[in-house]
Every structure is written in structure tokens, then in C-alpha cells.
């Protein structure tokens, strides 16, 4: 039992609840005995004050704008490391040495191909399907193809499932894109690095030589690193909840992809770019700022605000620099969208409404501009996010499965419906039931 306790008085009875300290961040009040001892649940819609698990993977201090993967600041990983190293770090807890990195990299390359039958699966979709709908389905379908990595009680199978996911998701994402635009699938090229291979599978065509632009590859690699994990966000919590029932890892990741798709989560980068295009020019900005502040208008400034960050999202700063480097490489010195974004950011950062509510640019604010500049259509933005986040999901899933205290996730509720009543026969029912 922890030395610190919190006293809670319910109906005259006082309970001593243990206060548990993490290595950083707020301590938590352990309410697990609450129901047994008091007959009450806690109520916390949106989990604004609830820690759902213990984790050693990612730490965020939203007030200070800090993001650490396994203790390493995101800025240092993004500037000095790379995505493959980040994957190793998230999965294993430590940065790889040279030999470990090489070995991990070769394992990931070994699994890049999808089962040939898989390509037929794509052909069942409408050509105009949103690539995210194909991703949700094809991630789920992986469980139908890779049976030998579905036993979640076997350490080796869990590792193989993780490698397969990280290796195959770029191939799958590129196929979803190629199918969507009606171009032939491009097989993976294991002579290339992870990001270079993905760019080739997306943008090469069989009739022409394709050369990867190193500035673009570096930009995308950094974007993947920035999105690799973000502790217990909605999609990660979805993966953990799905996995808590013992569901297979690919099915759990498919659930995470579905959750990520929403515009309040991973879909925000797509929504943000559309908003910037809608604003169009700097002179329209005041109109949109006024709309964002109007409580009677559902409009929100996309790419602004975050449940956890009440300061500048550290990823947004890095994303702004990537944006500059990609536009410079393209020889674009005056991109209207980038200019609108910079101006919007300046205005929002000095506006009383945004200051008071601590609304700062989040990672999605600049990412849409970069991804568009790299040649991706908006419908692919969330797919790229899912690709990068899959390593975080699988690392969090593994941590949960390997936790001896793991239980099925089963939240409770405050019931506000009818009390018990008797069944009414059809001809005695007065009102039509819609
Ligand atoms: N524009 C205008 N006002 C906003 C915005 C915004 N983008 N975000 C929050 N607010 C206001 C709300 O209206 C609310 O005002 P009120 O207190 O007067 O009612 C207050 O700020 C708090 O907002 P909540 O919705 O309660 O905050 P919550 O933590 O639940 O939401 C969220 C966070 C969903 C990210 C929200 O800020 C939002 O919708 N942002 C735009 C979408 C976006 O960019 N999402 C990406 C998140 S990052 C990611 O998933 C990778």
C-alpha cells in the first residue's frame, strides 16, 4: 500500500484510497476498492480525470508541451533519430545499438510483401472508396491471412505479429491509395529504406523510373516519428480495450484505425487542410476566427486545441519546420495555404479567446500542408497517420497483454433510463414507436 492516501467520505463512511505515484506526471487515486466498499462508481465522461492503465511507453506533460517516448524528447528523436529506431525503442524500451538496428531493419524488410491473395481483397471495394475504409477492412483481414501469429499467449507470436504489422502496413496503405486512384499496385522494394519504399509504392508507376527525393523521404520519416505514439489517446485506448478481451492483434489494430478516422482525432489533418483551403486568403481569417469563437456556430478551428496539450504541441513546431523544408525543396516560396496557416496561428496565439482556453496549434495544423506538398491527396492523410501510429498501438497492446494484472476493460455507467416497467402488448400501445 502506498504511504499517501486520499480520504473520500461517502454517505458518512470515510475511505482511505491509496495514492499511487508514477515516475513523472500527476499521481493517481486508486479507486479500485470504491465500488466494493461504498457501492458507488466514479463518473468521468471522456475520461478527463481517469488513468486507465499503467504504462512505461510515452509521457506527455500537456501544460509544458513535453512529449517523451521511453524518456527521450520527441525533438531529439525527430532531429537525430529515425522512424525505424523509434519503432525499436517503442517496442523494446531502449534505443538499438548499431547491430540491433541493422537486425531489426532486416526483419522489418523481410515481411514487407502481402500474401498474393490479399491483392484480390482490394478489388472487392468500389474504386471511389475512402482509403481509410479499405485500411480498416484490410487490417482486420490480416487475421485471416497470418494465422501463425494469432496466439497472444505466445511471446514469439506476439513479436511476429508486431513485425508483420510494421512491415506490411506501408504496403497495404500504398495499395489502398493505388486502388483508389486506379493505378497498378507496386511491389515493395527491399533495397530501399522503410519510408523510401513507401514513397515508391505510392508514387512509382511500372512504365517509368522512380527516384526518391531524399528531402521528401526525410520529411516523411520525421512525420512518422512524430505520430508514432501518444499515450492513451482515443485510438490507443480503443486498441487496448479491444485487446483486453483477448482479441487477436490485427483485429485490435483495425479497431484503432476505425477510431482514428474521426475528425476530432486523426481525421483532423484532412479537416484542417480543407479549412485552410476554404479560408483561402488572409483577409478571410477574421471571419473564421469570429465563427470559431461563436458558441452558436459549430465551426471549430481545425488543428487547434488538444485534450492534453494546454501549450504549444511540440510536434507542431517540428512540423512547421518540415513544412518550410519541403516547400523550399519544391521551390515554393509563397504557398498561399502556408501563409494563411502562419497568419492564422499568429492571430490565434494573441487572441484572448484562444489564450484563455489554452488553444494552441496541434500536430495536424501543418501536417496537411506538408502531405499535400509531398503529393498525397487529402483522403490519404489519416492513412499516413494510421501507418505511423500502428507501432504505438502494437507496443501498447503488447505492454497490456504482458501485464500480469491485465483484465478485460469494462467501464460502468450512470443509468438514466426508465426504471423497471411491464411489457405492453402491441394493441395496448398508445404512441407510435419510431
Ligand atoms: N476552435 C474553437 N474553439 C475550440 C476549439 C477549436 N479548435 N477546441 C476547443 N474549443 C473550445 C470549446 O468550444 C470549449 O469552449 P467552452 O469551454 O466555452 O465550451 C473549450 O475550448 C474546450 O473544448 P473541449 O471540446 O471541451 O475540449 P476537448 O479537450 O474535449 O477537445 C479537441 C479537444 C477535440 C481536440 C478540440 O480542441 C477540437 O475539436 N479541436 C479541433 C479538432 C482537432 O484539431 N483535432 C486534432 C486533435 S490532435 C490529434 O488527434 C492528433
Structural key phrases:
434 residues, globular, three-stranded antiparallel β-sheet, binds acetyl coenzyme *A, 6 strands, mainly alpha
| Sheet with the most strands, sense and barrel status | 3 strands, antiparallel
SS class? mainly alpha
Number of helices: 18
Oligomer designation? single chain
Question: What pattern of helices and strands is seen along the backbone?
Answer: EEEHEEEHHHHHHHHHHHHHHHHH
Rg over alpha carbons: 24 Å
- Small ligands present: acetyl coenzyme *A
Strand order of the largest sheet: 1-2-3
Q: What do the pLDDT scores average to?
A: 94
**β-sheet strand percentage:** 5-15%
| Contiguous runs where pLDDT drops below 50 for at least 5 residues | none
Distance separating the two termini: 53 Å
**Outline type:** globular
**Number of separate strands:** 6
Helicity level: 40-55%
If you had to describe this structure to a student in words, what would you say it looks like?
The protein is mainly alpha-helical and 434 residues long. It is built from 18 helices and six strands. The strands form two sheets. A three-stranded antiparallel beta sheet has the order 1-2-3. It has a three-stranded antiparallel beta sheet with strand order 4-5-6. Helix 9 packs antiparallel against helix 14, helix 11 (249-260) packs across helix 18 (381-401) and helix 12 (268-279) packs across helix 17 (364-374). It starts with a strand and ends in a 33-residue tail after the last helix. Acetyl coenzyme *A is lined by residues 264-266, 268, 292, 300-307, 357, 359, 362-364. Acetyl coenzyme *A (ACO) binds at residues 264-266, 268, 292, 300-307, 357, 359, 362-364.
Amino acid at each position: 500500500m502506498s504511504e499517501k492516501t486520499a480520504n473520500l467520505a461517502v454517505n458518512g463512511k470515510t475511505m482511505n484510497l491509496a495514492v499511487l505515484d508514477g515516475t513523472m506526471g500527476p499521481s493517481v487515486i486508486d479507486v479500485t476498492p470504491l465500488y466494493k466498499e461504498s457501492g458507488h462508481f466514479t463518473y468521468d465522461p471522456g475520461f478527463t480525470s481517469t488513468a486507465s492503465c499503467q504504462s512505461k511507453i510515452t509521457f506527455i506533460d500537456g501544460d509544458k508541451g513535453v512529449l517523451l517516448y521511453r524518456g527521450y524528447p520527441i525533438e531529439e528523436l525527430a532531429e537525430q533519430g529515425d522512424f525505424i529506431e523509434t519503432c525499436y525503442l517503442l517496442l523494446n524500451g531502449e534505443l538499438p545499438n548499431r547491430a540491433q538496428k541493422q537486425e531489426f531493419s532486416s526483419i522489418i524488410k523481410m515481411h514487407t510483401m502481402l500474401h498474393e491473395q490479399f491483392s484480390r481483397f482490394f478489388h472487392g471495394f468500389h474504386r471511389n472508396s475512402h482509403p481509410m475504409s479499405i485500411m480498416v477492412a484490410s487490417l482486420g483481414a490480416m487475421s485471416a491471412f497470418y494465422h501463425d501469429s494469432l496466439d497472444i499467449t505466445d511471446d514469439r507470436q506476439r513479436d511476429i505479429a508486431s513485425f508483420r504489422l510494421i512491415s506490411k502496413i506501408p504496403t497495404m496503405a500504398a495499395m489502398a491509395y493505388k486502388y483508389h486512384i486506379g493505378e497498378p499496385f507496386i511491389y515493395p522494394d527491399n533495397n530501399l529504406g522503410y519510408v523510401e519504399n513507401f514513397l515508391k509504392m505510392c508514387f512509382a508507376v511500372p512504365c517509368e523510373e522512380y527516384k526518391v527525393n531524399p528531402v521528401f523521404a526525410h520529411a516523411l520519416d520525421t512525420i512518422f516519428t512524430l505520430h508514432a505514439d501518444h499515450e492513451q489517446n482515443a485510438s490507443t485506448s480503443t486498441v487496448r480495450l479491444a485487446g483486453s478481451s483477448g482479441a487477436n492483434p490485427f483485429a485490435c489494430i483495425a479497431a484503432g484505425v476505425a477510431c482514428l478516422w474521426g475528425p476530432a482525432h486523426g481525421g483532423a489533418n484532412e479537416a484542417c487542410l480543407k479549412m485552410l483551403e476554404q479560408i483561402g486568403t488572409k483577409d478571410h481569417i477574421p471571419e473564421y476566427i469570429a465563427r470559431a469563437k461563436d458558441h452558436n456556430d459549430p465551426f471549430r478551428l481545425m488543428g487547434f486545441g488538444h485534450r492534453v496539450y494546454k501549450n504549444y504541441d511540440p510536434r507542431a513546431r517540428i512540423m512547421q519546420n518540415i513544412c518550410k523544408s519541403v516547400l523550399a525543396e519544391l521551390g515554393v516560396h509563397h504557398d498561399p495555404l502556408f501563409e494563411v496557416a502562419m497568419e492564422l496561428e499568429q492571430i490565434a496565439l494573441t487572441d484572448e479567446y484562444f489564450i484563455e482556453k489554452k488553444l494552441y496549434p496541434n500536430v495536424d495544423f501543418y501536417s496537411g500542408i506538408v502531405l499535400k506538398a509531398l503529393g498525397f491527396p487529402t483522403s490519404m492523410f489519416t492513412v499516413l497517420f494510421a501507418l505511423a501510429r500502428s507501432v504505438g498501438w502494437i507496443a501498447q497492446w503488447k505492454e497490456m497483454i504482458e501485464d500480469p494484472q491485465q483484465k478485460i476493460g469494462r467501464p460502468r455507467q450512470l443509468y438514466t433510463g426508465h426504471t423497471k416497467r411491464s411489457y405492453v402488448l402491441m394493441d395496448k400501445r398508445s404512441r407510435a414507436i419510431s
